Automatic annotation (TrEMBL):
GO terms for molecular function: enoyl-CoA hydratase activity; isomerase activity. InterPro entries: ClpP/crotonase-like_dom_sf (IPR029045), Enoyl-CoA_hydra/iso (IPR001753), Enoyl-CoA_hydra_C (IPR014748). Keywords: Isomerase, Lyase. Belongs to the enoyl-CoA hydratase/isomerase family. GO terms for biological process: fatty acid beta-oxidation. Coiled coil: none annotated. The keyword Disulfide bond does not apply. It catalyses: a (3S)-3-hydroxyacyl-CoA = a (2E)-enoyl-CoA + H2O; a 4-saturated-(3S)-3-hydroxyacyl-CoA = a (3E)-enoyl-CoA + H2O. This is Enoyl-CoA hydratase/isomerase family protein. It comes from the Bacteria.
Amino acid sequence: MTTDNAVTYEVTNGVAWLTIDRPEARNALSKAVREGLWDGVRRFNDDESAKVLVLTGAGDKAFCAGADLKEMSETSLRVPPPDFLPQIGRNIEVAKPTIAAVNGVAFAGGFLLAQQCDLVVAAEHATFGVTEVKVGRGSPWAAPLSWLVPPRVALQILLTGDPIGARRAREIGLVNDIVQAPDLRDHVQTLAERIAANAPLSVLAAKQTAYLSARYPIGEAYDRAEEIWEPVYLSEDAQEGPAAFREKRTPVWKGR
């Protein structure tokens, strides 16, 4: 199913694949791509059949090379508005888990898209870079980077604009897994299906909990975590899990 000629949306076994389909332009963020991403993320939020979102790019060279600089020059864009493209956790909330399947370069806006997914799986040849300092542009969206990786590493990435490879990205905690390029889709699909098979209320609460310490002092983070998890403890699924374990069967989750 297509959200736009430049972006596609398809669901396989509860996993929604949102794919930037401009491999000839290194999946750069043209207006059509940005609109397609907005449509796709909103569609995922509303799609009860989709439990996990995977964001990726077509081809084997680029996940997303960032803004379409030719288009940017033609439109004389100065300061991109905060809604220039969907920034998960900033200008659009996505309660369900998200995974970036990085199949090549993830530069600038491409780095943004990968950074703001919950998990990142990279092909061996993937590279990551916040290259704005090399072209005189800006990266306000990189504010969470020093929470995701050590501050001095974040500073090096931001100040030099130099790209880092997949192995270095995994060493610093930016990437969860590295796989051979031909195995990327199958690996991510399997990972996403493992997440989708878990108790849905627990998955949603777990995602919320993971981000609390980035937003609140630790005492308040604990208090908010208790509020998040109480309805999970009180749910039907909280009884179904132990019952299924006792009866040696697969749980049947109801999401309530």
